[in-house]
Amino acid sequence: MTFAIHGLAVARGIAIGRAVLVASSRVDVAHYFIEASQVDAEIGRIRAGRNSVVDEIQRLQTSVAHMGSKEAPHELSALLDVHLMLLQDEELIGGVTRWISDRLYNAEWALTTQLEVIGRQFDEMEDEYLRERKADLEQLVEKVLRVMKGMASPVVPPTNRAVRKTSQQDLLLDDTVDVPLILIAHDLSPADMLQFKQSVFAGFITDVGGKTSHTAIVARSLDIPAVVGARLSSQLVRQDDWVIIDGDAGVVVVDPSPIILAEYGFKQRQHELDRGRLARLLHTPAVTLDGQKIELLANIEMPEDALSAIKAGAVGVGLFRSEFLFMGRQGKLPNEEEQYQAYRRAIEGMQGLPVTIRTVDVGADKPLDSSLQDEAHLNPALGLRAIRWSLADPAMFLTQLRAILRAAAHGQANLLIPMLVHASEIRHTMALIDRARVELDNRGVAYGPVKIGAMIEIPAAALTLKVFLKYFDFLSIGTNDLIQYTLAIDRADESVAHLYDPLHPAVLRLVALTIAECHAQGKHVSVCGEMAGDTSLTRLLLGMGLRSFSMHPAQILAVKQEVLRADVAKLTGWAQQVMADDEPGLRMVKH
Ligand code: PEP
Ligand code: MG
C-alpha cells in the first residue's frame, strides 16, 4: 500500500530505489559492494567473527560454572545460554549469508541489515521477555562487529561500485539487480555521513535532524536527494521496500504505485535537464545586471572536495570544515604531519585559488565519533565546542595551527576561527597563532602568510563587531549557528524546525549589521552558512550588500543564475523594506 511520510527537504532532487535500513550501531559500519568472487571469503569473515564471540561466551560459561551462586547467580548462566542461542540461530547467519551472496553486501553491512530484519520480528512479539531479547541481540552484533574490526579484511576495502542509473522501465521490470539504494536510519552522525561520501546510496532518509544539522549539511554536499526529520520512517519502511525521495518537497513515498512511479520518473528527468541547463553557466562570470562582481566560494569537508569546488566553478574555498579530518578516528586525533598533508592537498587542489581553513569545530551535533555522543552535558550546543574546545587543549590547537601555517606555504590560505565571542578568547587565540609561528621558526620549518578571520555566529559577536574588526582581516557569517543562537532553536532538532527561520527580523538585522560594519571598515565579509546557498535568499542578501557567498559546490551554479538575473541597485531599497517588516517572509513570498 502506498503511503507518504513528511519530513524536511535538505537536498534537492528525486531518488527512486529500494530501502536499506541501517540499524543504529555504536560501531562504525562500512557499506560497500563486494565482487562475486569474494562472497565465500566475506561469509567466512562473518562466521569467524561470530565464532570468536561464541568462544568468548563459552569461556565465560565455564568460569561461571566454577563460581558459587553468590558470585554468579543462576540468571547469569541462563542469560549466557540465551546469548549463545541468539548467536547460533540460523535466522541470523542464514540471513546474513543471503545478503552477502544475493546482494553482494560486505559482511558488516549484511550483519546490520539482518539485525534490522530480526529486530522487527522481536518488536512484534507478544511476550515481553522475548521482546526484550532484542537488546541482547544488538549487543551481540555489536560485539561481532568489534571483533571483525580487529580482523584483517580479505576484501579490498570499499570498491564502492557506482550506483547504476536505472531508468523507470528498469525499475518496474528489474527487481533484483543493481537498483539504486536508499539509506534509511533513525539518525546518522556527520561522521557516519562522511563514510557514505563515496558511497553506493542514491538518497538518504533519517527520522531526526533539522535542516541545518551537520548531518543535513553533509547530505547536501553529497548532492543526492535527502529528507531528514521524517519521523518514524525507520520504523514504517521495511527493508527492501521501494521508496521515492522527493528532496524538493521533503516527502518520502513508500511502496509507490506504477502511476506514482511514472510521475516521479518524469520529475527526475526534468531535474537532470535543469542541471544540464545550469552547467552552461560554468564559465560565465558571476556579475549582476548592473555590473556588480559577486564572489561565489565553496564549502568543503575533505581535501578531495576541492575537485568538486573547481568543477562547479568556485573562485576559492570560503569554508573548509577541518573537523571532518578529526572524526571517526576513535578519539585518536590527526598529528601535525597528517593535517599538514591534508590542508596542502586542499590548497594545491584549488590551483592557486584561496582556501579558507576553519580550525576544528567539534562538539554539539558534531561529536568526534558517533560512539562519543555528548550525553554528559545537558546543552552541548552551548558547551565546549569549536574554539572553546581548541583553547581548552592548547597543545592540540597549536598542532593544528602549525599544520595550517605550513600548508599556507603552498598557496593562498586563510585561517578562520569559529564561535568566538569574548575579547579575551580573541587575544588568547591570536597569542597561540603567534606561538605556533615561533615554534615553527625554532624548528626551522617553512610556513606561509595567512589572513586571519573570525566567524560571526553568536549574536553577541555580531553586536560587538568593533573588537572583531580590530583584530581580524576578514569576517565570515555563520548563519546556521547565528540563527540557532538568536532564536534559541536547536538546529538539529526536527521538533522545532518550523521555528528555525532565516527570515526572522532579528537574524536579518544581525546579518545586515555585520555586512555594513565590515564594508564601513573596508574588511572582507562573506556568508558561509546555508543561507548563502539558498537561491530563494540570494537577491535579499545581494540587496543587503553581500558580495561574497560560500556554499556547497552543488549549489554554486543555481546561485550564479540568480546573481546573473539580479539588479542590485533595484534590490537595495526592497531589502530595506523586507528587513523593516514584522514578518519578512510574507514580503519575500509576494516579491
Ligand atoms: C554556520 O554556523 O553557519 C557554519 C557555517 O558553521 P557550521 O555549520 O559548521 O556550524
Ligand atoms: Mg557554525
Bound heterogens, unique = phosphoenolpyruvate, magnesium ion
- Fraction of residues in helices? 40-55%
Number of helices: 23
Structural class estimated from helices and strands: alpha/beta
Strand order of the largest sheet: 1-8-7-3-4-5-6-2
Could you give me the name of the CATH homologous superfamily of the largest domain? Answer: Phosphoenolpyruvate-binding domains
The CATH architecture name of the largest domain reads Alpha-Beta Barrel
| Biggest sheet descriptor | 8 strands, mixed
> What's the mean pLDDT score?
88
Number of domains as seen in the coordinates: 3
**The level-1 CATH class of the largest domain:** Alpha Beta
What overall form do the CA principal axes indicate?
globular
Percent in strands: 5-15%
The tally of strands reads 16
Q: How far is it from the N-terminal to the C-terminal residue, by CA? A: 41 Å
Radius of gyration from CA coordinates: 26 Å
Low-pLDDT stretches = 153-177
| CATH topology (fold) name of the largest domain | TIM Barrel
Describe this structure in words.
The structure is a single chain. With 591 residues, this protein is α/β, with parallel strands linked by helices. The protein has 3 domains: 3-24 and 158-276, Glucose Oxidase, domain 1, CATH 3.50.30.10; 36-148, PtsI, HPr-binding domain (Enzyme I, Chain A, domain 2), CATH 1.10.274.10; 286-590, Phosphoenolpyruvate-binding domains (TIM Barrel, Alpha-Beta Barrel), CATH 3.20.20.60. Helices cover 47% and strands 13% of the residues. It contains 23 helices and 16 strands. It has helices at residues 39-65, 74-88, 90-103, 107-123, 128-149, 168-173, 190-195, 214-222, 233-236, 258-279, 306-311, 336-349, 387-392, 394-407, 423-443, 459-462, 465-471, 479-487, 505-520, 538-543, 556-565, 568-580, 584-590; strands at residues 3-6, 8-11, 14-22, 181-185, 201-206, 226-228, 242-246, 251-254, 295-300, 317-321, 355-358, 413-417, 450-456, 474-477, 524-527, 548-551. It has an 8-stranded mixed beta sheet with strand order 1-8-7-3-4-5-6-2. Strands 15-14-13-12-11-10-9-16 form an 8-stranded parallel beta sheet. β10, α12 and β11 (355-358) form a beta-alpha-beta unit. The longest helix is centred in the first third of the chain and has 27 residues, at 39-65. The protein is globular, with a radius of gyration of 26 Å. It starts with a strand and ends with a helix. Bound molecules: phosphoenolpyruvate (PEP) and magnesium ion. The site of magnesium ion has 5 residues, from α18. Residues 217, 319, 321, 361, 457, 478-481, 528-529 line the site of phosphoenolpyruvate.
